[in-house]
């Protein structure tokens, strides 16, 4: 949380009540207590660890041979196809060079 006030220059101006471009001065800043900072940091770390678990997986097994089966993740394939498509679209310089 920050505390602010109207700058001295704007306070002395005759148009201060009508002006839309007022300048503010910061008086101070209140910081979170240590216990809240630790909780906020742990939430960020926990969110990064949980995020891969929250991803939907759709596994399929493909029988390649009599004794060979390959398991694929359709969601991972979908993501890879989208990345490849975007690379092919932007790879020609269409979007990279600003048009």
A few lines on this structure:
With 99 residues, the chain is α+β, with helices and mostly antiparallel strands.
Structural class: alpha+beta
For the secondary structure, the number of strands is 4
Distance between the termini: 42 Å
- The spatial strand order of the largest sheet comes to 1-2
Q: Biggest sheet, in brief?
A: 2 strands, antiparallel
- What is the averaged pLDDT score? 76
Q: Helix share of residues?
A: 40-55%
Q: How would you sum up the global shape? A: elongated
Low-confidence stretches: none
Cα-atom Rg, whole angstroms? 28 Å
SSE arrangement, N to C: EHEHEEH
Q: Into which percentage range does the β-strand content fall?
A: 15-25%
Number of helices: 3
How many domains, in number, for the residues? 2
Secondary-structure map with pairings?
Elements: E1 2-6, H1 8-12, E2 24-29, H2 34-54, E3 59-63, E4 69-73, H3 74-90
Antiparallel strand pairs: 1-2, 3-4
Which descriptors would you attach to this protein?
two-stranded antiparallel ribbon, two-stranded antiparallel sheet, alpha+beta, 99 residues
What does this structure look like?
The structure is a single chain. The protein is of the alpha+beta class and 99 residues long. It has two domains: 1-30, no CATH class; 34-90, no CATH class. 43% of the residues lie in helices and 21% in strands. It is built from three helices and four strands. The chain has helices at 8-12, 34-54, 74-90, and strands at residues 2-6, 24-29, 59-63, 69-73. The strands form two sheets. Strands 1-2 form a two-stranded antiparallel ribbon. It has a two-stranded antiparallel ribbon with strand order 3-4. The two termini are 42 Å apart. The mean pLDDT is 76.
């Amino acid at each position: 949380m920050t505390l602010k006030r109207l700058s001295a220059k704007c306070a002395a101006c005759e148009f201060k009540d009508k002006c839309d471009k007022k300048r503010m001065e910061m008086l101070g800043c209140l910081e979170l207590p240590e216990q809240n900072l630790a909780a906020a940091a742990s939430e960020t770390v926990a969110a990064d660890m949980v995020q891969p678990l929250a991803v939907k997986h759709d596994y399929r097994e493909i029988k390649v041979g009599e004794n060979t089966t390959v398991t694929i993740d359709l969601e991972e394939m979908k993501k890879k196809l989208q990345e490849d498509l975007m690379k092919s679209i932007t790879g020609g310089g269409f979007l990279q060079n600003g048009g």
